[in-house]
Specification:
5-stranded antiparallel beta sheet, 163 residues
């Protein structure tokens, strides 16, 4: 099955690799359907914990026609938001990890099922990234939602802990 825009996404992502042809070769031959790509060249990635990341993505998709690419790891324990290069070096936020210059991330082949990492928002192939200021505002709104939901959980669902 071919997902519309997957080919443009492949080309855009592969352009970040030191050797785009080797990147495409890796995607084709890696049984997990993933390749390592360097962050910091065409994009950085801000990595949020799963609950906060999903709530942030919900806010972003409600306010933006097209957010930047978003990855989820196995089990959705963490979500990675693609932002402009240099963002990770200047980001300050508890619980948020940044992947910028000098780091590499696992990137699945766009449009194919993989054994772990998957796209929640596929790259559009034009280089659309999430604006860090908009992401920060979405995170604040999402944090309030997550905190409110956690406070509303019965103590038994939290393992008997008090808030």
């Amino acid at each position: 099955m071919t997902i519309p825009g997957a080919r443009a996404a492949v080309e855009w992502l592969a352009a970040a690799a030191p050797d785009p042809r080797a990147c495409r070769w890796e995607w084709e031959r890696n049984p997990l359907g993933v390749a390592l790509l360097p962050a910091g060249r065409h994009w950085d990635v801000l990595i949020l914990p799963g609950r906060l990341g999903q709530a942030t993505l919900d806010v972003l998709t409600a306010i933006l026609a097209t957010p930047g690419p978003v990855l989820a790891d196995f089990g959705d324990a963490r979500l990675g938001f693609f932002v402009p290069p240099g963002t990770a070096a200047h980001w300050l936020g508890t619980g948020v990890r940044g992947a910028g210059r000098g780091t590499w991330i696992v990137v699945p082949y766009p449009g194919r099922a993989t054994g772990g990492v998957r796209w929640l928002v596929l790259p559009d192939g034009r280089g659309t990234l999430t604006d860090p200021a908009v992401l920060e505002l979405a995170m604040h709104e999402a944090a309030a939602t997550v905190r409110g939901a956690a406070a509303a959980e019965p103590a038994a669902e939290r393992g008997g802990r008090n808030p």
